[in-house]
Amino acid sequence: MTHSIKRGVSLYSFQEEFFLRELSLEDCIRISVGFGAFGIETIAEQMMPGFPNLTEDFYRRWDGWREQYGFQPTAHDMFAELKLYPDRERPTDELVADLKKDIDHTARLGATVIRILAATPAEVVELAAPYARDKGIKLATEIHSPRRFGSEWFESHLEVAQRVGSDVVGICPDLGIFVKRLPRVLWERSLRDGADPDFVKRVVDVYDSGEDTSILPVEAERLNLGPIEQDLAVQATRFIWEEPRRLLDYMPFIHHVHAKFYDIDESGEEYSIPYGEIISVLKEGGYDGYLSSEYEGNRHIQDAFEVDSVEQVRRHQEMMARLLDDEKQGD
Amino acid sequence: MTRPELLLGPDAAVAGPGGLEVRIRQPWYRSLPLTSVLGVTVAIDGEDVPADAIRLRVNGRSRTFDELAEVWDEVWFIQDEGAVEIAGVERAAGDDVDVSVEIELRFPYIIIDGVGPLTRRTDARRTLSVQENRP
């Protein structure tokens, strides 16, 4: 099937190496482009010190990298600092003013999408939408586990998109809503930390068979298990599995996709998320935006293994290129 | 990003001009406003340092934790060290020192339903060789 889906990387993926000063922002861009991922998604609060007051010097350097590496800036990931003040709520007008700064920054980068953090009030998105439209920026609320399609939260954001227009307001599904099997890196970590293997097996069995995971923390408590088992039980309740075909109900609203992954093994497969199934659905629905690699396995393995985000992203891009059958791209 | 080694690196103990300093990192994937740093506790050679003997220097400015609570418009960049300044504890460069440190962060953008903003403690303990002062 021909399609126009493009590959990209969220530089979130390289958080470990960036933190350790092993990779710079420019390194992350160069590496991604080297894997054929020409869409670059950035988090200003991670890699652009000084944000939201970046200098023109910074933006000129960015422009220079665009020219040198030939990438397309895709999305800027915003944060709504909802609880900035310890003793009071953040007023709506301050959140809207922040979002307008995000819009200016995104436009200056040359990107077209802002990942709206899921916790951002829908009202804030609606109030900033006219400004976004003027600047040619789309506001895409992230659909991130444990939030689901069809929930009250989801409907409130969808209503805004319908009212304002899907050309400006939409969604950014994070593929972590399609976790069919509990990530192996998660429960292997629990085993390394000394969790009871029988309980770990129970958690995995309940999750992978699609049973209600809310019973797991209760069971851990009833069995008088320790904090490691209880933590695993709670974590299992925060992963979700949505039916990928639900994406077809919302195609006009999908402006960007976070291609979340936890672990690509040596055979080149993601253990927990059925990428083949999801990409087929996106092709069928005519999605023409980016699949932006978002590696989030480091936190589960860093106790015992050297984190190699670059190799993980390489494998992930290779897998997506295979599933997209890149030579058939473009119609 | 809460690996203890990320919080407390091998060169973390420094003989500062005003006493021992423990250079730490903000163990998270993005920079946070300084008001997000709820507190740091330190024990040196097994002895707890009183809270009022500790200040945190970030972006070249030393503050108490009460002062940090009010700083909303300045962030701690994730590649930068913060210096925990410990009054009344002197150590010379080359000495070995056993350091325990714990930092508590509040994430202003991660709201747990029915609970409020997520907070997280990260701790680390290491025996370190005290380094000469550095910027």
UniProtKB/TrEMBL annotation, chain A:
Residue span, Xylose isomerase-like TIM barrel domain: 34-314
What SUPFAM superfamilies does the database record attribute to this sequence? Xylose isomerase-like
Any Pfam family: AP_endonuc_2
Which branch of life, at top level?
A: Bacteria
- Which of UniProt's keywords are assigned here? Carbohydrate metabolism
Keyword Glycosyltransferase listed? The answer is: no
UniProt cross-references to Gene3D superfamilies, sorted A to Z: Divalent-metal-dependent TIM barrel enzymes
Q: What is this protein called?
A: Xylose isomerase-like TIM barrel domain-containing protein
Automatic annotation (TrEMBL), chain B:
Q: What keywords does the record list, in alphabetical order?
A: Carbohydrate metabolism, Lyase
UniProt-listed Pfam families:
CGDB
Q: Which residues form the C-glycoside deglycosidase beta subunit domain?
A: 19-109
Superkingdom, taxonomy of origin = Bacteria
Which InterPro entries does the UniProt record give? CGDB
Q: What is a GO molecular function of this protein?
A: lyase activity
- Family classification: Belongs to the C-glycoside deglycosidase beta subunit family.
- Its name, as the record gives it, is C-deglycosylation enzyme beta subunit
Source species of the chain: Amnibacterium flavum
